[in-house]
Amino acid sequence: MPPHSDIVKVAIEWPGANAQLIEIDQKKPLSSIVREVCDGWSLSGSEQFALRYADGPQLYITEQSRSEMKNGTILRLAISPARAARQLLDRIQSHGIDARLEALKELAKLSADPTFATEFINMEGIGTLARLVESGTHFGEMLAFTLTAFLELMDHGIVSWDLISLSFIKQIAGYVNQPMVDVSILQRSLAILESMVLNSHSLYHRVAQDITVGQLIGHLQVSNQEIQTYAIALINALFLKAPEDRRQEEHNNPMDQRLTEMASTLAQKHLRSIILNHVIRGNRPIKAEMAHQLYVLQVLTFNLLEERMMTKMDPSDQAQRDIIFELRRIAFDGENDPSGTEKRKAMYTKDYKMLGFTNHVNPAMDFTQTPPGMLALDNMLYLAKLHQDTYIRIVLENSSREDKHECPFGRCAIELTRMLCEILQVGELPNEGCNDYHPMFFTHDRAWEEFFCVCIQLLNKTWKEMRATAEDFNKVMQVVREQITRALAMKPSSLDHLKGKLRGLSYSEILRLRQSERMSQDDFQSPPIIELRERIQPEILELIKQQRLNRLCEGSCFRKLGNRRRQEKFWFCRLSLNHKVLHYGDLDESPQGEVPLELLTDKIPVSDIKSVVTGKDCPHMKEKSALKQNKEVLELAFSILYDPDENLNFVAPNKYEYCVWTDGLCALLGREMGSDLTRSDLDTLISMEMKLRLLDLENIAIPEAPPPVPKEPSTYNFTYNYG
């Protein structure tokens, strides 16, 4: 008799017959199990049948995936993938319109199954679908289902995108360029073009020849956020794959410019204002995928600065040196320069010192370090020309101070530019799953330069508030970094809003916040307080443990890896109220509220869980590449390992959910909760409890002391009970 762990008890359905309740031996070939099931219903030709899940995506069960079957799973006997593929291929080529529509509808659903997809593709099914699209004779639902099936099949990566014909691309681009087209067709067409660009260098050029910025801008002005998301995703894809030498090109009419040459257009007023007014400030809340695409667009826009950031100044280049001369001229009005070369040189040196350059004789040397390279000089020139009064005030104000308290403008501007590049991660690839976009960067044509201008004024103000000297330079920069990062975390909606946030983050306020946070972290270190902390900690840890377990009972939704964005597939997991079973199952969409246990068809007894692993130790992360865009996914990954040798893999939607679930699972298994969130919660709750108890002690009425007795003064020792 096979071991208990090799036996799975399932129910198998067949239309018009009673379900069979059988025990499947996992060591037995799947074909033998299918034959036995067919025999139970007196069906001949068992090789023409296969098993599928009855719920969820209803995937076919293969020798590779059979280990995922659990006790209590409901299966369905169905025709085999090869037979289904042949029947559907014949039906979609039939002359009957109704039969063809039903076949395409079923194909669109089955194409997500990798087993079926392999069979259908092997029968030249991709070519058949492509010809249906190229013919231009399909419209409405029939075309929408055709495009859906095509995209699902291509998404498996079995067929190279390079094999797609030029006529197919033109047909798909035509749907995008049509003024009036069905929403479902437009969505799928945009998604197909995005996949072409991301997966094929040659198709990128073909798509870019047929799609212009103006055509995509039209799709940003609609009320459907899904269409807006697909349009921005296509802009991002084309921008991301654009050749480096064509990203920086300028064009007179950006509305007619091809997307191969569109980098400069991202900063153009029309595109920016359309995104700001119709997307960011629209009447609908920004969904997670739209937020991600806006973040990607923001990152790619800032990455245009990378070339200047990594370009060193050439001290022998007269054109570059003229920029420094211009900075000096604007600040000190050099019309009355002395005629003598030596006098002019001496005066220039003095002026460069007043401008705050480190190298007074040859300030060009200050811009030879990368980053920030020439980007710092660009920022300084923008400030001097576009905000001339502010520039002159900062320079002259500091040149009139005592030497020890002057704020060196040049040095500060260079270091500030480097800091802003670090904060905004200029030159970094977008992180998968990150939604951290800033609305204010879409409110101005020169958002980067204006951001610098706001921050250099903040730096000058903070320098004065700190009464800093040259020795305090690094301390000032640390405070300014903290002011900027705190303000950005508040997500200001405009640059004026940012200024308001920064005004509220003065140096004294930063000190107050630091002190408050320090108090919450380590409080007092006297022995009675330490003793009180030790007594309180177990009680607080138990509260945190119960909170984590309660969150697991509420459950969370997770995104499945390997699926295209905007066509996401989800699954849900929650702990039973008695803390004995983990229930999970697939969902068609992200849930709004609690998911009943009845809808979660799979389960794992807690007693079967052996361990919880995180990060690179997870089975689903070991084959992932270490590219930048996968780092965040790696940090949010965890897996449950359970008997016999199986695992349930997670990627948390954010850091909070990651900490809650890993801590909750550790608490469930009786192990120590060690996440940053638990440490933070522990410190916060202990500090709050200690302050409440100490406050109670301060309010204790101390009895009035008796009158002192001469010669024998009384001594009163009060011992507080901290329990």
TrEMBL record:
Coiled-coil regions, chain positions: none
Main location: cytoplasm
GO CC terms of this entry: cytoplasm; membrane
Localization per Swiss-Prot or TrEMBL: Cytoplasm; Membrane
Cross-referenced Pfam families: ELMO_ARM, ELMO_CED12, PH_12
CDD domains: PH_ELMO1_CED-12 (cd13359)
Keyword Iron annotated: no
Domain ELMO: 319-488
Keyword Phosphoprotein tagged: yes
Keywords tagged on the record: Apoptosis, Cytoplasm, Membrane, Phagocytosis, Phosphoprotein, SH3-binding
Origin: domain of life: Eukaryota
Cross-referenced PROSITE patterns: ELMO
GO biological process terms held by the UniProt record: actin filament organization; apoptotic process; cell motility; phagocytosis
A GO MF label: SH3 domain binding
InterPro entries in the cross-refs: ARM-like, ARM-type_fold, ELMO_ARM, ELMO_dom, ELMO_domain-containing, PH-like_dom_sf, PH_domain
Function: Involved in cytoskeletal rearrangements required for phagocytosis of apoptotic cells and cell motility. Acts in association with DOCK1 and CRK. Was initially proposed to be required in complex with DOCK1 to activate Rac Rho small GTPases. May enhance the guanine nucleotide exchange factor (GEF) activity of DOCK1.
Protein name, entry field: Engulfment and cell motility protein 2-like isoform X1
Species for this entry: Salmo salar
